[in-house]
Design brief:
The protein is an alpha+beta fold and 324 residues long. The chain is built from ten helices and 14 strands. Helix 9 runs antiparallel to helix 10. The two termini are 49 Å apart.
Length: 324
């Protein structure tokens, strides 16, 4: 796979996950036709960060190219600039969302594809997945630049000729900027995710887990990993509070045996209106257990294939998971 094709797929994953099925093309086509008139000519190119306002990871910024003006003969490009964003692994284990600026000087095929008209041929049905559209700028010999409209097919998606030209575009790297951290080094080393939802709260808010029986918990010698998350104040009490990674480790067999005993004897939990500030996720060989450190100290056991069951945690359980 070429670098352009790989970047195309990365952009696709950052845009919108596709949906299966088909639909009439009418609305999609109407919303995707390019506007009339020549593209706006900007006096000089600075950087992707300036041109995109630092929002390369926003799919809407790229999708707008489907309605931008057609590239006419009045502007003669000699260089293309690609602004894209995607995940990048760090050598220390973590990962970041980075913005990359690339340049290409062999732009004849790309320019020819951009000057194609929109294909308005009749079509019976269109698939529902959203297309990836790269964020492109074209520069002329004076350094002026335009953002061209992308030609569309009968379903309002980028024409295959444009997609092929973009995937084969030979580019060179210019800059890479870190937009935000995706996973810390400590989270990666512990085998935990950077973020996780407090499913005890989310399940309880919808009345779930109250009248169900927990599935069997794995034996004391099972490998169980615990990941602890802190819920930011602004997330607490929401529909699905997102916690940020705090710590993680694999539980020694003796500690898991004690925790297992507490979970196995836990009784039903009452309804709760006090959200927690920390919670732990126990990764079982088959399933998860969520334990709140504070608030109402409830537990959600999702072991095996059965439905999740909410139970009341204890001070000892909290000490085993959150104590030193």
């Amino acid at each position: 796979m070429t670098g352009r094709a790989a970047a195309f797929l990365v952009g696709l994953s950052l845009a919108v996950a596709g949906c299966a099925g088909t639909a009439p093309p009418g609305d999609a086509v109407a919303a995707s036709r390019r506007s009339a008139g020549p593209p706006t000519v900007h006096p000089s190119w600075e950087s992707c960060a300036t041109a995109t306002s630092g929002q390369e990871a926003d799919p809407d910024k790229s999708m707008a190219a489907l309605s931008l003006p057609v590239l006419g003969d009045g502007f003669q490009p000699v260089t293309a600039v690609v602004c894209r964003a995607g995940p990048q692994q760090r050598s220390t284990g973590g990962s970041d969302l980075v913005a990359v600026e690339e340049r290409a000087h062999d732009v004849a095929a790309l320019v020819a594809a951009l000057r194609l008209p929109d294909d308005t041929s009749p079509v019976d049905a269109c698939t529902l997945e959203m297309p990836f559209v790269p964020w492109l700028a074209l520069l002329d010999t004076h350094g002026r630049w335009v953002r061209p409209g992308v030609p569309t097919d009968p379903c309002g998606k980028p024409r295959p000729e444009f997609r092929a030209a973009y995937e084969q575009l030979p580019t060179r790297h210019v800059t890479t900027r870190v937009l935000r951290e995706l996973k810390s080094d400590s989270a990666a080393a512990s085998g935990c995710g950077q973020q996780w939802s407090d499913m005890v709260w989310a399940t309880g808010q919808h009345g779930g887990g109250q009248d169900t029986t927990p599935g069997p918990l794995p034996a004391g010698d099972a490998k169980v990993r615990v990941c602890v998350y802190r819920v930011p104040e602004g997330e607490r009490g929401g529909g699905k509070p997102a916690g940020e990674f705090e710590s993680g480790r694999e539980l020694p067999a003796a500690r898991w045996t004690e925790i297992r005993r507490e979970l196995s004897t836990a009784g039903p939990a009452a309804e709760c209106a006090t959200p927690g500030s920390r919670f732990a996720v126990l990764h079982l060989p088959a399933g998860f257990v969520y334990v709140q450190a504070d608030g109402c100290r409830r537990v959600l056991i999702e072991s095996g294939n059965g439905p999740g069951a909410i139970r009341q945690g204890t001070a000892k359980l909290a000490s085993l998971l959150f104590g030193r």
